[in-house]
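Hey, weird one. I pasted the Amidinotransferase sequence into the form twice and got a warning about non-standard characters only the second time. First submission, copied straight from the form history:
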Amino acid sequence: MPRAARPRRLLMCRPTHFEVSYAINPWMDPAKPVDTALAVAQWERLYELYAGLGHRVELIDPLPGLPDMVYAANGATVVGGRVLGARFRDAERAAEGPAYLEWFRSRGFTVHDPVHVNEGEGDLLLAGRYLLAGRGFRSTPAGHAEAGEFLRRPVIGLDLVDPRFYHLDTALAVLDTDEVMYYPGAFSAAGRAVLRRLYPDAVLVTEEDAEAFGLNVMSDGLHVVLPEAATGVAARLRERGFRPIGTDLSELLKGGGSVKCCTLEIREEE
């Protein structure tokens, strides 16, 4: 069956205030210089790419003092028009959750301010009827239970074991309703067993491509936007009938994020 693109509604945040002034993941090093203007230019190319593919892209205003707000995927999880806000583990990002929640609340969405830690689509990925949920470094089992109840989806918990892949969206990507790709080394033995059972035909990604954030992608069912350095992933996707589109977000990778991290999907339909 030929693959087909489905236009998406997306939320992004311009990296106006992007910098790396603290370290809360292994990719962040405040001693390394960051070119904010280059980060903005790379982000703008991603924005234009989405628009050119026919996606509807909306913007949330960046706030001073929140350099990681550009990673919009962490700001919430939206399923069927219901918005689960984020509650961050680290104090440096705590104010992002309320900012994103207010954006949705002011636009009439049904919102929930969470009690337990969850870091949005960083750790909660919708795959058909399931919410695949990462845990071990950021989001918590209690946060997953809260997400499942509010978003009305069964949750499949997956333990992350490699600190380089601290969020699920760095270790696994949903390509279509029932198709995923992932890096096996990011997961516990039990997590790998679950993924093999659910997705026996999944694309398995090498450590090299995972380190290039080749799993931090946005797929519309046909086009897969991914970091241009993840050439192995691109080749595997072409074999499966997808159309990979590489882009350079090397400055934003200094904060531990790439394509998916910059992209929050607004799903209005059940």
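That's the output from the first submission. The warning seems to come from a hidden character in my clipboard, not from the data itself. The chain has a mean pLDDT of 97.
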